[in-house]
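## Example record

The block below lists the input lines for one assembly entry, exactly as stored, with component labels intact.
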Amino acid sequence: MSLQYFFDNIAMLRSELVIAVVFTAVVFVDLLASKKTALKLVPVISLVGIIAAAIYLLTGFYQTAGLDSVGLKDYLTVEPLTNYFKLLILFGSTFIVVFSMYSDEIQAISERHGEYYSLLLATLFGMLLMVSANDYIVLYISIELVSLTSYVLAGSMKTDPKSSEASLKYLLYGASASGIMLFGISILYGLVGSTSISDSYTYFSDITKFSITNFVVMFFILVGIGYKISSVPFHFWTPDVYEGSPTVITAMLSVTSKAAGFMVLIRFIVEVFRVDVTSNGFWTMLEQYRWEQIFTVLAIASMSIGNFAALRQKSVKRMLAYSSIAHIGYMLSAMAVLSDSGLLSILYYFFFYYLMNLGAFVAVVYVVNKTGSDSIESFNGIGYKMPLLGVALTIFLVSLTGLPPTAGFIGKFYIVMAMLEAKMIPLTIVFLLNSVVALYYYIRVVRHMFLMRSDDSKKYTLTVPENGILLLFSVPVVIFGIYFTPIVEFIKSTLK
Amino acid sequence: MQQFPFLTLITFLPILGMIAVLALPNTSEKLMKYITIGVSAGQVVLAGIMWSLFNFSLPGISNESSLQFVEKFTWINIQGGSWIGTIKIDYFLGLDGLSMPMVILSAIVTLIAGISSWNIDKSVKGYFALFLLLNTGMMGVFVALDFFLFYIFWELMLLPMYFLIGIWGGKNREYAAIKFFLYTLFGSVFILLSMIALYLSTQEMYNGTKVFTFNLIAMANSANFTQDGILSMTNPSNLRLFAFILLFIGFAIKIPMFPFHTWLPDAHVEAPTPISVILAGVLLKLGGYGILRINYAIFPDITKTVFWWIALFGMINIIYGAYAAMAQKDFKKLIAYSSISHMGYVLLGMAALNTIGISGAILQMFNHGTITAMLFLIVGVIYDRAHTRGLDEFGGLATKMPIYTGFVTVAFFAAIGLPGLSGFISESFVFLGAFSQDSIRIITVISTLGILLGAGYMLWTMQRIYLGPFNERWSEFKDLDARELLMLIPLTAIIFILGVNPSLLLNMMNTSVNAMVDLINHSPMK
Amino acid sequence: MNEIQMLYFALIAMFLPLVGFVITLFTGKKLKYAYIFETTIITITFILSVILLLNKVTTFIDYRFGYALDVALVWAGNWITLPNPITGNPTIIELGIKFDNLAAIMLFVVSTVSMLVHYFSIAYMHNDPRFNRFFAYLGLFTFSMFGIVLTHNLLMMYMFWELVGLSSYLLIGFWFEKKSASDASKKAFIVNRVGDLGMFAGVMIIFLTYGTFTFDKVFAAINSGVLPFNSDFWLTVTGLLLFAGAIGKSAQFPLHVWLPDAMEGPTPVSALIHAATMVAAGVYLIARIFPMLTADALLAIAIIGALSSIIPATIAITQNDIKKVLAYSTISQLGYMVLALGVGAFNYAFFHLVTHAFFKAGLFLGSGSVIHGMHHEQDIREMGGLRKKMPITYYTFLFFTLAISGVPLTSGFLSKDGVLAGTLAFGMLTGHYLFTVIGFFVAFLTATYMFRLVILTFHGKPRNLHKYDHAHESPYLMTIPLIVLALLTTFIFYTANPIAGHSGWFLKDWVNTPQTVAPESSRFDFMISEAKTYDQQIEAGKHHVIHSEEYTHTMHTAEAISMVLSLAIGGIGILLAFSIFQWKKISLDPLPKWMVPIHRFSYNKWYFDELYDVIAVQPTLLLARFLAWFDRTIVDGVVNGVATITRAFSMVIGWIDTNIVDGLVNFSAKLADWFGYLFRKTQTGSVQTYIVYAIVSLIIAFVLLVTI
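Predicted structure tokens for the full assembly:
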């Protein structure tokens, strides 16, 4: 591989490069600049860097040629679909940074700001890599990169024992999950003789080689991915980690890193098990691997357990954690359809999920800032103290429930459509009934905000930018609920 | 033909009002109230104009060219390379004989409820903003002819209703509000399911190609079903029946039909008076309207096979609701149960599958809307004064409040189905229609027991609250004030006018009902 | 007047009271003299009705067949038209009036009694705080009653039927402050509804079969062989279902229980509604549907009529409330009319309806006068000797009593005699003599209890001196109506011959028996005239026929026999009353032992109220309470149960989450901690120890590698 080729084609990884540069910049600024300057500069640099990366990504969004000609193709895939996920992750990260700037929890650890932001960027880098990974080794490394940095981020509130506990738990689980995955990968390597994901298709497709080993491998790799997207039954870490982590990191874990994980899942399924796509968009799969059944079971388990567990949570953060498991379940049920429309509906859903979940988290961040607690009682009467926040959070929660006219409804609408197109009626019914259950706990927050009054008469006010952020999320949630043509058209263009 | 957008205006006028209310400072409560009432009055005027322009001879139902006041624009149109991801949703509003009476009812009841909201003093701004949002949702359901749009309006009502009960309701309001919300959502997810299944099964021509459609009118034409769609007419499995049942449950919860009715007593009892009025006056009608517009028109073949069950549930509603009403101790709860009983007539009339029965059902929806609205106002009058509604705590109010008792008498006897008042015609039509349908004749005969039971609990209530010796505890009571009269007089007038001249509404709906009956009769039998 | 004018006048007469009602109701509160307006209106209506009646019976009579044939004037319009372009079979509901002799006479009766009651009430009710409202309600009632009288179709009949029920409800409960009054009004309405249910079912069958409610169209269709569900049986059932309405309204057994309670209403109301007019509506209904009644239906009607005549008569004899006695007497007399219709004596039934309306109104108004004079005392045990204090009341009351007892020169004699003759003729023709026996026995009882009433009230010595001293004759506004009614109770208004009613104009020219249209297989053949077919009648636009020759002959014989018999029996009854209560020849104080249970049974009204309470009211309330409980506990319980299960499920998951899952996590954390502790122990801080550890580890690794 000549260096010239490398430089000719490295531009395909433009956003990764930008992030790497910004990461270095942040480390250096933190080291070199005075503490005060660093405090101001680091978040801004991160923010500008991420936005720059996103814009840079957009400039070559549909450009796919080039990578093929170099050896990189075997390790990384760059196509509009991965670019879409990268864009989502960059978009999410932008706001993670913004929220960090407004989060009192993060502001409280200002002495370690450089560390915090650089880790955020490192995580981001890992996620971008994960999305592109077309090689088990790259995949493993990127997952580990994301995980390791996440462990630290989850524990960034060192003084809070909960945070440390979260970090430890996350580490323990992460280590075992990625260990298992690595084990699977190593067996696969022994069987196939290649670490390329695409190459394993030939192995799996050969029916004569059918054995229990295949399933073990398949399962072990699935464990790693499942852990990343926190699907049931690999979700155990989620609630505690979400609860213990700073709210911003919780948002990151439930939004950006899930997108990365899901892209890996998609790639794994599509590259390894998909034989062909029929004219009406259904995928023909390798016969002996019953993916639709596996996904159906995973989806039902994730939705139901996520929702039922969320019902009883006192902590809103923890509730959102469980609900994110349920949302993964919704997307997994679209995955179970194994069709282009299913895949598309996942892509739509992710976008809307980003909007509403990030919005919900930022609202929770504000409430935690004001009341110092994320327990549901601390939301009492919030709707009267901060009306805009109350209304915005209501919109987010309604959208998470999936009621029109909000974006969340459109997301669900597309998933249901994909499922019905494949005539998967029982799964659809379970899916829809889960929405009803979900309403109960989402609306509970609304109830506390509006139907209950708080005991104290403290007045809370939000600054203009803080309100601006709320509007930035809530307005699109409503608008996309009513008019979703542009976003859907855009997302569809990433899938050719 | 581009014409004046009546329907858009009547639907979204409240949204404008809501924006205005939200823009006002918290202090100008009076103005908010005036805006709300003004908006509703505007809707009534618009409904009146539409009525005067309405052509009674156009059927609608399954014939798009005979709809009136149509506004149809492409709203969402996403084209795919192959069909994957293609979706086309229209902003499609229109009226026919089925929806016109409901639009009028909705406008009138909302206006009355708006006036009734005058003495709301808690979080006035929020109340009226939500009230207006609710108003849009209700109106929207009646005028939307694109299923997607219909569904959005349908769900749009839930949240405002939740807040209106949950914040401004009675003692047990939170339980009632969440019960209402969960119950209705439970029903509407089924509607969603069937809606998408229908979408994937029907196509209509658009720019020369066949595209999937949410058009309710196109769905009502069996020729538009695709050959291999999930709900196509030729589908040998029972999926069509299944979709019918899901839709039916979704709408039956709104009606509310036994055994899906238990949200209603709670919601009614806890809701503030104006919201009870809207609930009973309009919201319950949405269920009946939905069944006719969607279940009947789109699944005429299934309708023909299951109508016996609809009648049976109608009968259970009538009898069961009446008995349950009789045992109540709370005035409002009694009226709530009587609503269940009276909505049973709607189901029974529908099940008749003939012109007179379905006309009776629609008329009953309208009449129940006005009569029960009045009954809830009547409960509101004493609740405002006494802050209690126990049936046994009053007595002899007729002595102290003769004018009020006069209205009560009218409302009660209208509910009992006294000739000359509107309830009589609709009940008679329902019975006459249902009796003509051979297989539900026995059910109809048993249902007539409802007439007797209705008289029983209504008169008993009359006696306990208004007759007998005057309870001195309430010696402070004043007779109706001007605002209360303003609400009760128009409703009374409607009750009388429709009692004497039901043709006003019957003529409006007749052509459409005939078209519907024809659709059902000519659908292939499974 | 021509036909159109007649109909217009009839319509005006019908709607005038409604106008009176509305105006009086809305101005009554402000204008003290609103009642005068209402009374004027009713007087105008009365004048109109007289004009209409005279015109009708003189001008619109057809003599072409050799006897007076009633010509029905019909005005009808479509009320609701639902065109059905698809089937081409529109649903049409007509409204219309049919003005025949029956209607004209009833119009006259109702307006007369109503007017007299209005005048009477001005005096009787003068102290009432809701004086004007009372008159408004009377107006509403009169309007509703006119509706029943004039309608030409069943639906309208049913509608006004219900309206009459409403006005009755309002008037019985006029003094609603009294619990008993509001109870009675409720009871009246609900019991009536039971009958109405049956009637409505009948109406539904009619509409289903014939697609119309109009009497004449229905009859024509039956005559051409169209039957409900194509069977005679269902024609009978339909007839009986319609009759159920009459059972309710005319207080026939077993729905008679509301009428005695209805006496809680002001006495003029009892006179107008619960004696003369509304309760007669049931009889009028049977008369209207008479042609479609089959033999079985008629027999059933006769049985109900017979039971209704005898049961209340046995009760009336022991009652002490002046109005209650009259109430039971009313039921009994209505039973007579129903019985007469059942046995086919159509014209006598209607005749009795008219005569009874006047004399029973008179009796009630007389009792009202007594109650007024006695300052609202209704118990006859507190009266006695009032003859001297209230002469006009007494003599009119006595005259009415003679009429009801069937003494010659009164109208009652003529009509009652006819009814009895009808039962006798029926017995002779069909062998059902039990009706005859009951008829005559009731005549005996009637004479007895009515004279008991008169004697206890007016004769003898005053039993309550204090009340007697304050008693006074009523003002002229009250006594004049009594006198007018007494005049109307004389024979001369109906026939010139005081002992032969059938030869008078009322029976001969005014009231014709309509011919049955029931199919041959299910009718009494004696009701069909051999001479003229129904088709011929229809061609001429009428359908009234005289009975068959056989029936006419039998009836002739029966009339002669029954006149003698009834005179004798009535006489015995009167004599018995006098000997017990006036002359005290037969002592009933104390009661003979064998009579005590009978007396108690009669005094307690055969325990009907108690029976209905046990078999109908309590079970209904119990079922209601059960269903309400069921609803809250079971149905809602299921809903809440789903919620609870969901919550419980979430609790289990939550528990697993916090204990097992988190426990595992905590366990691993503990384990890690323990290892940490272990290692910390090893972390002594001295480098030498570390090296020792390293070397030891290496050795272990080496050994392991080698051995494995």
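The radius of gyration of chain C is 38 Å. The interface with chain A takes residues 646-647, 649-651, 653-654, 657, 661-662, 664-665, 668-669, 672 of chain C (CB under 8 Å).
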